User: Which sequence fits this backbone?
């Protein structure tokens, strides 16, 4: 429903600091530590394989914590959950900084992932409470976009600090960013307080939410799993294919940076289209373009073609910014929303884990080109799911 005409129009900029400030700072923290975790593990004597596993513990910690994160957020509210998650993340990062053994670093990284699960879920539900439904896609697309901006800034901020203080500098940047995110969340208004007080005291169980919304999880949820697998794979494909073409590390970094720049530039227009015309008109083109771009990359043999299709890939991923959160918010019930979104995030995280595994497995038994083409086909499968089950109309026009 659109707001009554007598009410002043809602403007996203009125909640910019409390809603998006923590998202930018979380992105900075994430971007600052991701490049240095493997290097820290190697300094502590870990093998290359063990270092790679320790990096993956962020995703594993997030995945296994989605349901507990939903329970915590439902019990304590979005704002307090974000504050608590930020503080827990700071303690986990300090454990990483002062690690003297690989198991300490591994534990710290795993705990960072657990904190991220709570923080990201609480941040999403906080914004859903703060924004009217007719602006939801723009709000959540901007949320995804601001996080990407922070992730883009993070490595540069980390690199500057590393120059003066060694590898620990990346973690200290993350500590400062998460403290800032927690402080903003602490000072922010609690938009969900009225909704929580109006709801019954008895909270629905996660298993009941899973059962009553099973059809949504098995239909649109499948599309979200495929989208997440596609997105996670593309981050691996670009550097691997660049290496396959014999590009230098510097040239690969430039291509990756250009792709990221395109990715960050289109999130708000895409959110506007979703709000005005419906989620279908962005979700379907984005997964089709991502899938076709990956298939095209698997057929390239020169830098120019690779760059063009990589930029198309970045554009397609950019317009899909916030789509997982938006579709989850649309499908979630008012009572039991955090429990629903916890399951939704678990599905997305499973997809994030599966994508690179599929790429690696097919590359091992066939070739890199076959692996890239195979993950590209996930985009076509996601498009089929959205064509079948995603509504065409915007929320305000649905009965």
Assistant:
């Amino acid at each position: 429903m659109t707001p009554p005409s007598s009410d002043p129009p809602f403007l996203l900029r009125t909640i910019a600091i409390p809603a998006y400030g923590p998202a930018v700072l979380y992105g900075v923290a994430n971007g600052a530590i991701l490049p240095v975790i493997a290097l820290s593990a190697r300094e502590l004597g870990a093998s290359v394989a063990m270092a790679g596993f320790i990096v993956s513990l962020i995703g594993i910690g997030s995945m296994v914590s989605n349901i507990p994160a939903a329970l915590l957020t439902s019990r304590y509210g979005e704002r307090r959950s974000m504050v608590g998650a930020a503080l827990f993340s700071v303690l986990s990062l300090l454990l990483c900084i002062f690690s003297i053994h690989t198991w300490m670093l591994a534990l710290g990284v795993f705990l960072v992932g657990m904190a991220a699960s709570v923080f990201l879920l609480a941040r999403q539900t906080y914004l859903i409470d703060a924004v009217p439904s007719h602006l939801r896609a723009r709000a959540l697309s901007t949320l995804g976009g601001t996080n990407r901006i922070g992730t883009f800034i993070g490595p540069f901020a980390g690199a500057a600090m590393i120059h003066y203080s060694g590898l620990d500098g990346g973690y200290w940047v993350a500590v400062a960013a998460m403290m800032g995110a927690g402080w903003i969340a602490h000072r922010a208004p609690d938009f969900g307080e009225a909704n929580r007080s109006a709801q019954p005291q008895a909270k629905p169980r996660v298993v009941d939410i899973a059962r009553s919304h099973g059809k949504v999880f098995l239909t649109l949820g499948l599309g979200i799993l495929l989208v997440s697998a596609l997105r996670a794979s593309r981050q691996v494909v670009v550097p691997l294919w660049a290496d396959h073409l014999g590009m230098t590390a510097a040239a690969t970094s430039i291509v990756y940076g250009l792709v990221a720049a395109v990715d960050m530039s289109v999130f708000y227009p895409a959110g506007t289209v979703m709000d005005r015309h419906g989620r279908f008109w962005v979700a379907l083109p984005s997964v089709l373009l991502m899938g076709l771009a990956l298939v095209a990359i698997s057929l390239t043999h020169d830098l120019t073609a690779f760059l063009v299709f990589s930029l198309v890939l970045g554009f397609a991923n950019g317009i899909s910014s916030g789509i997982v959160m938006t579709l989850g918010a649309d499908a979630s019930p008012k009572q039991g929303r955090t429990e629903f979104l916890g399951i939704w995030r678990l599905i997305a995280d499973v997809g994030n884990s599966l994508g690179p595994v599929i790429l690696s497995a097919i590359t091992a038994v066939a070739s890199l080109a076959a692996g890239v083409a195979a993950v590209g086909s996930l985009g076509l499968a996601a498009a089929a799911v959205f064509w079948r089950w995603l509504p065409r109309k915007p929320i305000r026009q649905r009965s």
